[in-house]
Write a structure and sequence with these properties.
This protein has helices at residues 14-25, 41-50, 64-78, 101-129, 149-170, 188-191, 196-201, 207-222, 227-239, 251-261, 267-277, and strands at residues 5-8, 29-34, 55-58, 83-86, 132-136, 175-180, 184-185, 225-226, 246-248. It is α/β, with parallel strands linked by helices. It has one domain (5-193, 226-263): NAD(P)-binding Rossmann-like Domain (Rossmann fold, 3-Layer(aba) Sandwich). The strands form two sheets. It has a seven-stranded parallel sheet with strand order 3-2-1-4-5-6-9, with helices on both faces. Strands 7-8 form a two-stranded parallel ribbon. Helix 4 links the parallel strand 4 (83-86) and strand 5 (132-136). Helix 1 packs across helix 9 (227-239), helix 3 (64-78) runs parallel beside helix 4 (101-129) and helix 4 runs parallel beside helix 5 (149-170).
Length: 278
């Protein structure tokens, strides 16, 4: 049988890298994309160690021309596209009083509008194939967290977008799912590009709250799930005959998201997260 063709965004590190390799091991013809092909070395080393071949291409989720060029080339080369994993994203730490609107818009561009643009570009091919669309959000797409206003806003937006799209896409044979990782041991935190000392120095009146928040984050990433573990959940979604719409990648993530879904008036969540900065 012809191998199903899968496109994954953001594969230079972390969950995207692990997903591209795990999916290839599971039998997918995997097109692994990233913004900067100069960062493909780690992906290639991992693929070589796993004994799989990947088709590595450039795709920048905030560059509409690169999205369309990549999708068009994949369809020209393989004649089909059976599944897409929206994984590319970027973390961000800050609070609105100390940020510009341009800062917030930049977070929304990569984490929300990039997902929207890729989704729009691939839906015709997925409709033709009766395919799958899987989007990596975050527990931060369900639970708002201190100093993550812009990031959580973007992830909340992605979840609302996909939850609304899912039944519509289902009428034309496309299954839509979202994946909510918690803390994952990867390069994601380093990719934020923030120096903790610089964050503290610039926190001003929010310095005590920021100190508490960073302590909580440091502790959570000390016991983080592996990127491979999160990737295995994504591959299960890609192969499950009847995939769920929403899934978490660990028991810790399930418990965390469950707190929000049971919290009708919001008091449990705000008390919990208030304790991180109180």
């Amino acid at each position: 049988m012809e191998r199903p063709v899968l496109l994954v965004t953001g594969t230079s590190s972390g969950i995207g890298l692990a997903t591209a390799v795990a999916a290839a091991q599971a039998g997918f013809q995997t097109v692994a994309t990233m913004r900067d092909l100069g960062r493909a070395a780690a992906l290639q080393r991992t693929a070589d160690s796993a004994g799989v071949e990947l088709d590595v291409r450039r795709l920048d989720v905030i560059d509409p021309a690169s999205i369309r060029l990549c999708v068009d080339d994949v369809l020209a080369d393989f004649g089909r596209l059976d599944a897409v994993v929206n994984n590319a994203g970027a973390g961000h730490v800050g609070t609105i009083e100390q940020e510009t609107l341009e800062d917030v818009r930049a977070v929304m561009e990569v984490n929300f509008f990039g997902v929207v643009d890729v989704t729009k570009a691939v839906l015709p091919a997925l409709r033709d194939a009766g395919g799958r669309l899987v989007t990596v959000t975050s527990v931060g797409g369900a639970v708002g967290q201190p100093f993550n206003e812009a990031y959580c806003a973007a992830k909340f937006a992605v979840e609302g977008f996909m939850e609304s799209l899912a039944p519509v896409a289902g009428t034309v044979g496309v299954r839509v799912s979202i994946v909510e990782p918690g803390a994952v041991s990867s390069e994601f935190i380093r990719n934020i590009g923030a120096d903790p000392d610089a964050i503290m120095a610039g926190a001003g009146p929010y310095e005590p709250a920021m100190r508490g928040y960073l302590a909580v984050v440091t502790a959570s990433f000390g016991d983080a799930q592996s990127a491979r573990g999160a990737a295995e959940t994504i591959v299960r979604l890609l192969t499950d005959p009847v995939p769920p719409f929403r899934i978490q990648t660990s028991e810790t993530a399930r418990e965390f998201v469950g707190t929000k879904l049971r919290d009708l008036d919001g008091s449990t969540v705000t008390t919990m997260t208030g304790g991180w900065v109180g």
